[in-house]
Amino acid sequence: MTDQSNVATRSPASPETDQPNIASRFPAMPKSQLARLTNGKRSKTVDGRSAEARRLRDLEYLFAEPLGGLARLPEAARQLVRRTAALAVASEQMSERVARGEPVDALELARVASTLNRLTLRLERFQRQQAGKSQAPSLAEYVARHAAQKAPA
Known about the structure:
Structural class: mainly alpha
Radius of gyration: 20 Å
Shape: extended
Strand content: under 5%
Distance between the termini: 59 Å
Helix content: 40-55%
Number of strands: 0
Number of domains: 1
């Protein structure tokens, strides 16, 4: 069983956990009343050791990292990251089938590519919005600025 408390330090090459534990956002509810995903776990029916599952986790991490990580994202943005990563994996699988000469539904491939493009554009827009927000100064910056204002000139 993996430790669900240390999400921020995981690397994309060796993910230690599947999801951030966001159960702390529901202090009035016991964990037993929350969904597995809310508690930071994936479905029991999905084996997270497959190449596709590992790629999905890596992409989720890579898409969420510039936004501050999955744990810091609001649920809507977290869902956007998950859906984008899932479609990217599906697109990669379809491209591999094309490269092997296997038949692929061209309409399905076009839909996946178009939807993936729209989702990545939404992620980029969200990232720009986050970058445009003013960041609160750290405690050290606040103290230094306050001290500089009070210091006699």
